[in-house]
Amino acid sequence: MLEARLQQANLLKKVVDAIKDLVQDCNFDCNDSGIALQAMDNSHVALVSMLLRSDAFEPFRCDRNIALGINLGSLTKVLRAAQSDDILTLKAEDAPDVVNLTFESPSTDRISEYDIKLMDIDQEHLGIPETEYAATITMPAVEFQRICRDLSALSESVSIECAKDGVAFKCTGDIGSGSIQLRSHTDVEKPSNNVEIDLAEPVALTFSLKYLVNFCKASGMSESVKLCLSNEVPLLVEYGLQSNSYLRFYLAPKIGEEE
Amino acid sequence: MRRKPIPRPTAKAPLSETSQNIQSLPELAPKKKKRLVQMQLDLVGELRKKCRVCGMEYIPSNSEDVVLHRKFHAMNVGGVDFTKAFVERIKQNQVWAGGDGSFIAAVGRKDTLAFRNKASEVLKVVNTELAAVTIPDEALWSQLHSSISSKAVAHGEKPQPSAKGHSACSTSDRFKAYLYIHGQKCVGACLAERIQEAYTVVDQDDASEHTGRVPVPAEFHGASISISRVAEPAILGISRIWTSNLHRKMGIATTLLDSARSDFLYGMTIEKTMVAFSQPTGSGGELARKWFGRRAGWCVYID
User: Fold this and answer.
1) Is there a contact between A250 and B60 if contact means CB atoms under 8 Å apart?
2) Do A255 and B36 touch (CB under 8 A)?
3) N or C terminus: which one in chain A shows less Cβ crowding within 10 Å?
4) Cβ separation of B41 and A157 shorter than 8 Å?
5) C-alpha to C-alpha distance for A219 and A217, rounded to whole angstroms
6) A202 to chain B, minimum CA–CA distance in Å?
7) How far, in Å, CA of A240 to CA of A243, rounded?
8) Is B25 an interface residue toward A (CB < 8 Å)?
9) Which residues in chain A are contacts of B41 at CB distance < 8 A?
10) Cβ-based contacts of B40 with chain A (< 8 Å)
């Protein structure tokens, strides 16, 4: 059986919020190392990969590998009933029909319990190849969110150009164009404000802003975000979570067609 | 040539204040357009997916394909949609009525084009699911009287099925479609055909019966059958029979068969022994075995 106790329901709430617009139904694969999720959006343009390691839970017990096929819409409905600082416990049998969620309020003695019916999702495991990225940019998550939001007002796509001296986010739309330049920056007082650029070779890629704005819903989960790019390879947007857990998004680039 | 432009400005004078800039805009736009194509992630081993319920293969990442599949799936699983008005109209052809407002309507050559087209539409779905060939509309609504005599001669048959059968067949339509309508959907269909002869199905696994392992082979027979070499007279051929996935195991196909038997020839109910199936699918064979009430000894005809 599975029993996982999360000190703050907020973590799961935010994860589900961030991915529910990309995927509707997906399997939560539970094993003794933690809970993992991998799903592609319907159009096969973006991929979500989440790992909540067992260390993130206290306690965590999973005797057998189980896949919980959950409709994220239903999960959102139930998680809405949880206060963000509630203690959340996930429970499931070895061959489950339902997953049980318990919310305990730390201040009062209120305990609420919900069961969500599981579904049989036929989904194969996606092997994500390990990639050496040419450029890795670490920046405050809110900064990335702001860039995406501001540029999405102008255009559908953004080109991310990373060179030695910094990274530029550029877009051109019907009403005009916009460009945001970031340089490496170290803030001694607040390291979370750092902008770090680790570059092996210059890269320039174009991505759909619609998806990036969607990814940015995870901004509240982590102070900084890591963007990994290589030419003609999907972009990796990674939000690091507590105890080595992560929420990763992959996005296929847009490529200009020869005319 | 010069004179012509002069009357124009006077006619359109109120618009003359429009900025001159506008004209240049549409020219610029297409120049700047760099066509960007969204790439897709290629991580799944197989791009195509086969729906486990309706059996359609499609590419889930292609939105057009997905819409097509959704349509086909709904039709396949839930039946073919009819409009309310059409259901009311086709009710006049009703040959059987069930308690819950469902009924069976017969559509033949003499029916209106609208009815026949709807029947063809249903048969299209049926043929796709059964992986059967499409019967062209001309053949579907043809009469049989001319070909009957020639066929009988060609086969050199001594005994005609019966005097009654012969006189009726000379005027009968070749095909008749029976549609089982439930609510506003056609959930089952049967295409009956006038035939002359059929071959008896012989029991394949006599051996297994002797060893007493009856329950196992009786569960599933597969699609393979063996037939006798001698043709027997037959009247009614079940060319196609189908029930939508959601409505199986409810006796719809059996009801369709009984309706076809009693309605196909005017004024007589055809004996079960005079009914034959076209080459059945696995589940078609199951139906035949259930309806005839025996594992072998029922007839199959070759079309």
Assistant:
1) no
2) yes
3) C
4) no
5) 5
6) 21
7) 9
8) no
9) 40, 44-47, 234, 250, 252
10) 43-45, 252
* In chain A, where the domains are located: 2-117, 135-251
Task: Enumerate residue ranges in chain A where pLDDT < 50.
Answer: none
Domains of chain B, each with CATH number or no CATH = 47-78 (no CATH), 80-301 (3.40.630.30)
How many other C-beta atoms lie within 10 A of the C-beta of residue A167? Answer: 23
Class of the CATH-defined domain A2-117? alpha beta
The answer, yes or no, to whether residue B5 has pLDDT greater than 50, is: no
Banded pLDDT at B16 (limits 50, 70, 90): low
Quick one: residue B134, left, alpha or beta (phi over 0 = left, psi -120 to 50 = alpha)? Answer: beta
Closest residue of chain A to B60, computed from CA coordinates: A42
The complex scores an ipTM of 0.79
Q: Would A2-117 and A135-251 be classified into the same CATH topology?
A: no
Confidence of residue B244 (pLDDT cuts 50, 70, 90): confident
Q: How many residues does chain B have?
A: 303
- Between CA A10 and CA A222 the distance in angstroms is 12
Is A135-251 assigned to CATH 3.70.10.10? Answer: yes
The pLDDT of residue B214 is 41
- Closest residue in A to B62 (Cα–Cα): A43
CA B235 centroid distance within chain: 22
